[in-house]
Amino acid sequence: MPTSAPSISPHRWSPWLLGPALLAVLAVGLALFHYFTGAQYTLPLQPVTQFKPLPLTLDTVRVGLAGLPVRANAYLLTQTHDVAGPFVRPVAAIAFLAVLAGSLIYFLATITAFGRPAFVVAMASVFFLLMSLSPDLLGVFDAQRQYFLVLALVALGLPAYAFHAFWPTVPRWQRLGAFAVLVVGLSALLFVRSSYSTDITALQLATYATRSGAVAVALVVLWLGFENVHGLLWVGTMSEQPRLRLGRLPLLALSILYLTLLFLYYWRNGVVQLTDTLRLDPLLFLLPAALVGWLGLRRRAPTYNEWLPYATGMAPIYLTLLAIAAATLGYALATLNDPLLEAARQFTALAFLGCGGGFLLYLIFNFGPLIKQRLPVYRVVYQPRRLPFYVVYIMGVGLLLITGLRTHFFVLDQVEAGFYNNLGDVTRLQSEQQPEVTPIALLAERYYAESDVLDRFNHKASWGRAALYRFRFQRQNEINALRRALSRAPSPRLSLRLAALYNEPADFFDRQQALRDGLQATPSNAFLASDMAQLYSRSTLTDSVDYYLRRAEEDAPTNEAVRTNRLAFLIQQDLTAAQQWATDHAASGEQPALQSNELLLARITGQPAPAVPQLKAGEGLSLPTFARLYHLALARDTSLLPTLRQLRQEPIDSAYHEQLSFLLALTQHYGGRLAAAQATLQPLTLGTNASAAYYQNLMGTWLLQQQLYARAEHLFTTAQVNGYPDARVGRAYAFTLNGEPDWGRTSLPAPDSLDYAGRLLRQVLTLSYPADYATAPDSIKAQFLVVQGNTLPPAQWLPAAAALPAPVRTEALLAQLPRAIDAGQLAAARQVVEQFALPPATKTRTASRWNVVRGALYLAELRWTDLQKLVATGYFTAADQPNYLTYQALLAAHTQPATAGKQFAALLREAPFEPEAVLAAADFYTNQKKYQQAYDALVRGLEYAPNSPQLLRAYVLATIPVGLTTYATDPLNQLRALLSPPEYATFLAQYEARRSAIIAATESWN
pTM of the full predicted structure? Predict the structure, then answer.
């Protein structure tokens, strides 16, 4: 055994190496980050949400035994995938330039202490870097002259030479500070004086740094070419116990396995499938090689110490070059510049294969017997006895030259193609910022075309061209670019984007072929399988939908889009299975599309709505979050009112303004805020399109429920004219309930198109009382009393309803009792209420309607104690809140008149459409001598019921004390048409008497 070299003590860490070490770690960390996230940020996958309308009946407005449905569309959500971008990455470019600038500072400060030959070579590399950046193209001084380049060469070259030749004793930290000031100053001047924005400037510099960065990568790869085999030797022979060290055969086996993988990578054109989803990537071999290279750099000193010392020369140079190389690869990974990455992979594989094979031969020839004896050979590995060390690089560089000659040095073309790709990205960004300047876009396309020529159909250039075409809505050109890229190599993202472009019904088979080809190349891609399932959901091939959904679930069981599509499929096929699936796979966290479908399922099946995260205003609504909010609102969740109001005011959500207004009105209505709901919905009813027709019908249905028949009839008519045929039945009911049965009869559509409510009304309108009444079915009798019960003799109103059988009697009684109370039949009404009404506290819609009648009866009989008990314990639905507020206000006026103002203010705010409520408020304010408030209350009431005789009479009288009698002329003309001549004459005399009294009192005072 040869004599071992003196043991080298571990090197004490020098603070001087802290800066380059941090730069190297930062650069390697960024490269790893971009390795795993580059595609996510540059070509992000985006779910594309589709809405499938599902008609729902939200509520039924009862008109006796008939029900007018309140319909709305729910939306079943499914999701496919699209690819956005490719996005240009200015932040990645700035990070790359920052590492480059920091490395340059340390490099300059280090090389000034070198000997003359090493210093000259190092400064030449610095000049090469500065010239390759082409900074004068940014127009710092003059884009046609290289003034800035000359300035940079002088500003960095002269101080470096001065430190090297004249001031060699200046401490390293002062040199570092001087070069830091110079580099930072030059960088600031470059960015401040640049003719372009910061982003464009950074991208331009990063683009022109491509070639010099590629040289740095090549140097580092060659330096590390054998370090992985060295690492195997080091780990295998470093143990203190000989029996735990590797012998010759195990070391040979591991090394040959490693080299075989590299050979296969080259032989199979870069495709070595390790597992179903994992391929060999030679770039990952750089990580252990870089680590072993750094740890073994001091032991490697015999190979370079004639040129450079270890501590002040090779160590910082190694770290700075490693930082530059890692930053270059990181920027290529961030931008998915596949020509550069493929060149780096092929060069790394060949360099590691040649140098690693040469180093293995070097070990066998020099240390084979020692390895066989299980001796710690790693300690003397750089002290050969037979074969010199430079043979390793002869074999490595020789293999690179041989393969380069075979391929005409295609790796250089790939580097150049990567450069043109970066140049195309910069120009494309400029064209998007200046879309009116077409030549910029043409120039960008030309750069991508140059890249295509150098590296045929490389994906980066194809994505860039597709982005140019997409920005200008050239769909077919984009399709052609993507198909050319797929002819080069398969890519799931390319397949997804191409499939997304086939979005017309006639494109079914083209989309199918794109997805099928993608699945054939990557069978385990869940996104492709999910999109194929959604494609088949357009057909009747439900087994194919289920098959591809299962494939997607196997590969991505927690993916929101896959789970959303599964639940949507089950909702359409089997509600029971959908409920069971939703129970077993409930959404967690923020999964709005899936949660929207869960809310829809609960709405369809009548189950309680599942809990979902609270929506935050100001973040902007997406289609899934809007759908989730929409279905929550359909569930009548009144806690959404503040959120809906705020969202309506957000400019970012302006696209959803109409639907948010609808949801707000709906939530207000079912929360008992009926007037506010009408005010919110009113602007949506002003159009003449189909959407406005729907809102007109909805408003008409609500007004019909509130017994505002004239306004309801107008809205139903408008909705029918604007193309909403379902409004015809509601219109017929509005006419009939408004005392115009002939118009109601002619408004009904043909019998064969009528629903139950329409058929029932047609039968009622053809019924003649009393001739046909006795022999009519009980349901027809009850419905006749509901819509035309006032045509009977008053004495028959309640007996006719009470005589009906129990299933239909309630509706008839609830319709006839208000008429009887208004006619003064209080005793008979009291008897009917006591006999048939439900208990006041019963929480049903029917009990609430009984409570409305009961309250009217108590008011008519002035039974204030009973009314107080009813207000305290009775149940009133949201639709009956106006009546409840009326009873509450009148009770307060009777028991606590001093504080009743608040109740009447709330009454006018929430129920201005109720004539009785408005009259009660006006009487209260008149008794309080608040004549202006009384007048304002009546004005507001007439906005909702302009033809109410009671409101018109009260309004005419209210104009007298406020001195606005000139405004009484038109209401008096309306009353002349609405009242009989005797009634009108009596009222006119009353009006003149009051007006005269006010005038006389005023003249007396004057």
Answer: 0.85
